[in-house]
Amino acid sequence: MNWLKKSDKHVLILVTAVAFGISSCSEGNKKYLKRTASNWQKYVNEISGKQPKLTNTVLLVLKSKECEPCIEEIDWWNNFITESSTLNVYMIIIEKYETTFTTFLDHNEFEINAFRDETGLVLEQQLVPKTPVKLYIDKKGDVRFLESININSNPENFYNKISQIID
Amino acid sequence: MKYATWILLILLIFSLACSSDKMETRSTIELVKVDSLTLKPDSLNLFGTFYENFKINRTGDKLAFYDRVKDKVFVFDEEGDFIQAIGEYHKGPKGIISVNGYDFTSDDKMVIMDLRQRLLKIFDLNGEVIKSSAVFESDKVFVPGGRVFYIHDDAIYLPIIQMKFVNDPDSSDLIGKMNYDGSIIKTFGKYDPFVNEDLQYSMNNKFSISEDGIVYTILRSSYKIRLFDLQGQNYLGSFGIEFPSFSLPQKEILGQLSIPEINKRSIGTTTTNSIHSTENYFIQHVQVLTKEWFENVNYEDKDNLLVLYDMETKEFMREIHTPHTLGAVYENQLYMIEDFNPDNYTIGIYELVEKER
Fold it and tell me: Which domain covers residue A26, as residue numbers?
């Protein structure tokens, strides 16, 4: 009986910890989902001097030294923009050197419009929690989805979620 | 008599003062710049980002760098003039998908290990493939245990883990000797038992081979250097102290943690990037991982220090903090990367010089 009580206590602690973990994770992402197209436009202008329209847009935020699964996903988006015009897609690449940035784009034959963030301002301004990530800004200018780009990520699923709210 | 006693006493005081002065004027070792070179990239073969460590050939007149962006090896001469970019990025016997190790042979060929294709390739310096062989075909026996890749006396040395000891790595042999056909012909050495106490999930081992055939090995997160005899493959002992800047993680770093959490726990810890033996000094190149490094992955954001030991006695001498990254050591010269910008990639050549303090 005592053992059961002890075990119950452990289960309770575990469940509380997991629940706290989940809630804190979603809280963590909520902060970044509150950013708007206007916040992003201001940032893009700061790093590039340009003012692209960022509504109905997928942003891919990464470093040029990011690992292979990330490159594979960017390849998918690169093919996507040549076949579809339903969305704007931009890359934001954290890279100190201009030559490294252009070599990275040329070598991978990426045709997606890309902006270079020389100092990692995107992290400093807390627009994303980490890299590599992808996010979607809807037609109203709200950030709707934010997901990691990693070995388990699936760009098709991400696009399907966007498709459901596009129309 | 009284005067003579006083004079003797004064002389004695003076002589003591002088000898104490001599005790104070001890020597110290300093890094002194003797030369520098800036790489001149070829406009048709621009490089993206060179990895920190690079290779110098036996005669010291060629340098090879691994470009992380293009997965190619770039070769330059000692003046910084471009010679060749080796490895077309495609699958097959001529292509390279990943560079997991590379080095010059004694006759200036370039050997590249491509683990994504499980191939070992030998190129001439025109970039042509001379030989392509399968490696780690039977991955039930060995797996690679790190990025170190050395050619010494026409054999390749690289860290391995025996699969049967993958959960008990301190029982595994440490180094594999591979021939140019890609076969592991001998294994030797043992992992430092510290691997079981290590709070980091990585078993990354660094090693170097001295001219007199001694293999020096170190676990990336440790300070203890272990020695093996290349000929007999015997364990010869260890040296190394917890140098002043040495710092381990406060919390355990397991592979299943998220990358941001791994990074957070690694901030401020020291990690050995490479080890080298010269005529007078044993050099341990240590880096301190910083928040800025994990945020932007710029090599300049890591703090660098050289931990120096007397080559003969193996006694700790000092640690030198340096703003530059040690890329390679050739004979007694240290090649430090002063500028990572691909448009102005500059290497300072330094020597360790004993100076009066």
Answer: 1-33
Chain B contact present for A152, CB below 8 A: no
A49 lies in the same domain as A122: yes
Distance between CA atoms of A129 and B315, rounded to whole angstroms?
Answer: 46
CB-based contact, B299 to chain A, within 8 Å: no
Q: What is the ipTM of this complex?
A: 0.81
Q: Using alpha carbons, list the distances in angstroms from residue B15 to A1, A52, B27, B294.
A: 85, 81, 21, 57
Among B242, B246, B295, residue whose Cα is nearest residue B269: B246
* Residue A101 and residue A26 in one domain: no
Q: Which of B47, B69, B296 sits opposite A96 (nearest CB)?
A: B296
Selecting from A94, A96, A103 the residue whose C-beta is nearest the C-beta of B46 gives: A103
Q: Say if residue A87 is in the same domain as residue A65.
A: yes
For the cut 70, the answer to whether the pLDDT of residue B281 exceeds it is yes
The predicted model scores a pTM of: 0.85
Instruction: Point out the least confidently predicted range of A20-29, A36-45, B224-233.
Output: A20-29
Q: What distance in Å separates residue B323's CA from the closest CA in chain A? A: 18
Residues A80 and A160 in one domain: yes
Q: Which residue of B has its CA nearest to A123?
A: B295
pLDDT, tens only, B131-143 = 999 998 765 788 8
Percentage of residues in chain B with pLDDT exceeding 70? 92
